[in-house]
Amino acid sequence: MERPSVISTLEQAVKARPMPRHVGIIMDGNGRWAESRGLPRLEGHREATSSVREVTRTARRLGIQALTLYAFSSQNWARPAEEVAGLMDLLREYLERERSEILDNGIRLNAIGDVDRLPRYVRDPLDRLRADSAHNTGMVLSLALSYGGREEILHAARRLAEAVERGELAAGRLEESDFEQFLWTQGLPPLDLMVRTSGELRVSNFLLWQMAYAEMCFTDALWPDFRTDEFLRCVSQYQQRERRFGLTSAQVQREDAPQQAKA
Ligand code: IPE
Ligand code: IPE
Ligand code: MG
């Protein structure tokens, strides 16, 4: 009989415990992965798509409801034009190549960010896949494209102000939920776990509002090296944390703790 591998043992252990509902990943380190091999940076971005496929499959297998991948930031537009163009080409290839994988696995593809800034040849396959997967209920895979957390908050604030001007909402009675309905992540579960690869200890404008009570997993692995086992380690770390949401440990452990504290 085949011995279970270390990875599948870890996966079984992870599966037996409560899963984060929404995981966000800052997929960083593609350039360094390539440069350390004497390759052009774009080769790192190309290899990154294999990690995207593998982590998406694993998240789906684990039953995670929502996975949000930071693929291109608002600030990344300022990179050399050649790198931006290469990234856009890879994005289009990804959307075409992964189409059947996404549809066959019941995944709903979503995009967050200022997607109107993307070139047509990316927006078209993106819109098509979003529409064709709209009724899937397995997992929401959100690609953060031309995304910035501050940009998202500003965009939401503008739309909220417009709703107030139209008299639909009263400024003095606004609740967090009123604000959240204007965020690009509207309808997604709260962010439970944020992962960043490549050893950088910063959030680089990712999901700033949503991150308020997310658990963090920072790993030195460069994104092209980040595969199932690394992902499972992050989920496992998350499962070992006590999420207190401002309460004491004793409160959280009490049966009557408020719902949010036990979320
Ligand atoms: C992350 O990898 C991908 C994007 C930001 C598009 P990087 O390209 O930032 O890789 P490093 O950080 O330079 O190694
Ligand atoms: C964050 O990585 C953006 C993405 C992963 C898409 P960056 O490489 O752009 O972040 P900084 O510049 O190191 O903060
Ligand atoms: Mg980087």
From TrEMBL:
- Keyword Transport in record: no
Q: Where along the chain is substrate bound?
A: G29, N30, G31, R32, W33, R41, H45, W77, R79, R196, R202, V203, S204
What is the active site of this protein? D28, N76 (proton acceptor)
- Which CDD domains does this entry report, sorted A to Z? Cis_IPPS (cd00475)
Gene Ontology molecular function, alphabetical = ditrans,polycis-polyprenyl diphosphate synthase [(2E,6E)-farnesyl diphosphate specific] activity; magnesium ion binding
Pfam families from the UniProt entry = Prenyltransf (PF01255)
Family membership: Belongs to the UPP synthase family.
Q: What is this protein called?
A: Isoprenyl transferase
Q: Which organism is it from?
A: Myxococcus xanthus
Taxonomy-wise, where does this protein's organism fall, top ranks first?
Bacteria, Pseudomonadati, Myxococcota, Myxococcia, Myxococcales
